[in-house]
Design brief:
- The chain is an alpha/beta fold.
- The chain has two domains: 10-119, Tetrapyrrole methylase, N-terminal domain (Cobalt-precorrin-4 Transmethylase, domain 1, 3-Layer(aba) Sandwich), CATH 3.40.1010; 124-248, Methyltransferase, Cobalt-precorrin-4 Transmethylase, Domain 2.
- The chain has nine helices and ten strands.
- It has helices spanning 25-33, 45-48, 71-82, 102-111, 124-131, 162-168, 181-190, 220-226, 244-250; strands at residues 10-14, 36-39, 56-59, 88-92, 116-119, 145-149, 171-175, 198-203, 211-216, 233-237.
- Strands 3-2-4-1-5 form a five-stranded parallel beta sheet, sandwiched between helices.
- A hairpin with a 7-residue loop joins β8 (198-203) and β9 (211-216).
- The protein binds S-adenosyl-L-homocysteine.
- S-adenosyl-L-homocysteine binds at residues 17-18, 92-95, 98-100, 123-124, 128, 175-176, 202-207, 232-234.
Length: 259
């Protein structure tokens, strides 16, 4: 790649949870300025049309048979593309700073002297429940919500203290937790969370292929397996899940489809 004396800016853009119309106006504007777009999941068609035709698209995700590039490799690619002097958009699902490793990219870019800006996105933990009629807080039902990762992490310590969390907040939203759900549910229940707490698992939330299962904390994993729900999926636990039926009817789509 040819180097330029002035590096281009890297924009870390939150693409939102799936539905391309949930991208922010600012994200759309920045996508329209992109000369290079670095992405790691499929770009929805709606977003593809916002990217200039001559922009370079760089895929840095999992390809069949090959493992994911490491975070260091992604950081290096962002730095190398910016050093060509072009405007780089790093497109990330949801919000770049919610379990998106956006912070690591900011630190790497900063250390390399590359200017960068973060464009927030709508995170799955808020948008996915809302899209199916679940408010993450609701006066009188839930005055607290925790967004946690179900991923065990790479160190020795689990990044989440499940025993403390069990009764600390009303709504628990778990990213990346489906494969570990049996253990997580067991630990939450053992630490005092009612086993019949309403709970849901959702995959492809806000997208055309959204799948969801609503159950109780103790039966959620079995019901999700029976329904064939696959990762990546979001887990929602708490009394607000019980509002879904009523809210789903009240909030049924009234927006006319895109022409
Ligand atoms: N930065 C992203 C989260 C990245 S972690 C955000 O702010 O939303 C990836 C995890 O997010 C997935 O494993 C899944 O748990 C959750 N997730 C993201 N998009 C989702 C969607 N459309 N439906 C369900 N879960 C989703």
């Amino acid at each position: 790649m040819e180097q330029s004396s002035n590096p281009g800016t890297v924009y870390l853009v939150g693409a939102g949870p799936g539905d391309p119309e949930l991208l922010t106006l600012k994200g759309a504007r920045v996508l329209g300025l992109a000369e290079v777009v670095v992405f790691d999941a499929l770009i929805q068609e709606g977003l593809l049309s916002m990217i200039p035709k001559d922009a370079e698209l760089v895929f840095m995700g999992k390809r069949c048979g090959r493992s994911c590039p490491s975070q260091d490799e992604i950081n290096d690619a962002l730095i190398a593309h910016a050093r060509t002097g072009r405007t780089v958009v790093r497109l990330k699902g949801g919000d770049p700073f919610v379990f998106g490793r956006g912070g690591e990219e900011v630190l790497a870019l900063g250390a390399a002297g590359i200017p960068c800006e973060v464009i927030p996105g709508v995170t799955a933990g808020v948008a996915v429940p809302a899209s199916m009629g679940i408010p993450v807080t609701h006066r009188g039902k839930s005055g607290s919500v925790a967004f946690v990762t179900g991923h065990p992490g790479s160190g020795l310590d689990d990044p989440v203290n499940w025993e403390s969390l069990a009764t600390a907040v009303s709504t628990i939203i778990i990213y990346m937790g489906l494969t570990r759900l049996p253990e997580i549910a067991e630990r939450l229940i053992a630490a005092g969370r009612a086993s019949d707490t309403p709970a849901a698992v959702v995959s492809q939330g806000t997208g055309k292929d959204q799948r969801q299962v609503v159950s109780t904390l103790d039966n959620l994993f079995a019901d999700a397996c029976a329904a064939g729900i696959e990762t990546p999926a979001l887990i929602i636990i708490g009394p607000v899940v019980g509002l879904r039926k009523q809210f789903a009817t009240l909030t049924a789509a009234a927006l006319p489809a895109e022409p």
